[in-house]
Amino acid sequence: MASKIEQLIDEIEDYIDNCRPQLLSSTKIIVDKEQIDGLLRELRVKTPEEIKHYQKIISQREEILNEAKAKAEALVNEATAQTNELINEHEIMQRAYAQANEVVTMAGEQAQKILDNATTEANNVRVAAMQYMEDMLSHLEEIIAGATQSAVSNYESLVGSLNHYQEIIQANRSELHPVDELEGEGGGAQAG
User: Fold this and answer.
1) Are 79 and 100 in contact, with CB atoms under 8 Å apart?
2) For the chain, which domains are there?
3) pLDDT tens-digit profile of 119-144?
4) At 55, is the secondary structure helix, strand, or coil?
């Protein structure tokens, strides 16, 4: 299941893919500023929700860790209780002592293993959640940088086109008045 952030990024990409191309360009598009701003605002709102969601997952992992600790303590207490029962029985005192030590050792090892596994799992979930957020933010940064670069490129292209048209207009205007230029040159020659 995709996260809300991924869905919004997909919407932004779909929006960009569906934008009309700029006149006489195959790589430039026309973007509705309000619509893209709306999508970005919604993304900003959803990002903290996703972070809360992953914090809740981390919190649940901590609960699992606490349960594991409680189970480990219960195992140790049970082992201790069994040890005490075995020691209290007179005929099998030596054997009971050895078995009790074995049970306590096994319980301690098992408790430590449970704690280690729970800690590792909680850390893995936390690292995965942080990596996921880093990946999503990096992807968003790339999209925004691309949109910015496209906007700058479009602006520069527009200015270049306008300058070109201005030069054409100036050339056309000077072609409309070739006589004036000749008279200006001829009048200067007569005066000298």
Assistant:
1) yes
2) 4-152 (1.10.287)
3) 999 899 888 888 988 888 888 888 88
4) helix
